[in-house]
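Private note to self, pasted from the team thread so I don't lose it. Backbone tokens:
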């Protein structure tokens, strides 16, 4: 919990810093599969309005496919921002520990998207507006490891017990820009490697539906001007799981 609060504070600081990038991370897909035939779907939203959709299906007792997407369309006084991302992948999952209540998942995949950002600057004396527009497409390769544990804790509200799940996702992404334009003119393209440690807490509303709170941050391993680690991951959303063993999710 202390780690989650630490990342929450860091995430809020990043959100308030005003930094921008052509890449905005999506919420990691954590389906928490236990056996063949399970289906997971989720939706999450960040304070900036970035909406993430995640789906996954367990095609066997240890292999699953995932499909993720995110989109943002924001128009504000100082900045307009549009961002779209779609990625797909697959990987391995297994359960272990007491009663099989710990879940390990490893996924890898490929995706792509686009970013369109217009910065607005109003002159103090004349009130005239100047605009700086950044347009780029990008490709993305990612590897992600999820660890979830069903702890013996629950939240008691209105005489009901709501089990809690805690987990961590560590994602590494290689993102490469192409077709980058600055004010409609070709500009220098960049790439970067991002490390995205994520912490999530799930409140079980019923055996199939969970409320998820996610917090985390992003580190860029390369020093870049435009493709930087400017955004954290701080979101709330719902996750629906159908099928599989009942681990009081």
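Design output:
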């Amino acid at each position: 919990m202390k780690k989650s609060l630490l990342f929450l504070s860091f995430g809020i600081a990043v959100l308030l810093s005003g930094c921008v990038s052509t890449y905005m991370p999506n919420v990691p897909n954590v389906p928490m599969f236990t056996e063949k035939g399970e289906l997971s779907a989720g939706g999450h939203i960040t304070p900036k309005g970035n909406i993430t959709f995640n789906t996954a299906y367990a095609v066997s007792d240890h292999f699953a496919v995932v499909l993720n997407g995110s989109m943002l369309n924001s128009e504000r006084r100082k900045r307009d921002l549009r961002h779209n991302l779609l990625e797909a992948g697959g990987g391995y999952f297994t359960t272990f520990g007491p009663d099989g209540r710990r879940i390990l998942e490893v996924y890898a995949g490929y995706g792509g998207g686009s970013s369109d950002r217009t910065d607005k600057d109003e002159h103090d004396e004349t009130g005239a507006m100047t605009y700086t527009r950044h347009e780029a497409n990008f490709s993305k390769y990612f590897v992600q490891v999820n660890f979830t544990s069903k702890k013996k804790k629950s939240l008691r509200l209105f005489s009901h017990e709501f089990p809690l799940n805690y987990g961590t996702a560590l994602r590494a992404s290689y993102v490469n820009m192409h077709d980058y334009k600055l004010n409609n003119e070709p500009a220098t393209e960049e790439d970067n490697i991002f490390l995205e440690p994520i912490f999530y807490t799930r409140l079980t509303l019923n055996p199939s539906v969970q409320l998820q709170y996610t917090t985390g941050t992003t580190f860029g391993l390369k020093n870049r001007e435009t493709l930087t680690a400017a955004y954290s991951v701080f979101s709330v959303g719902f996750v629906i799981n159908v099928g599989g063993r009942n681990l009081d999710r």
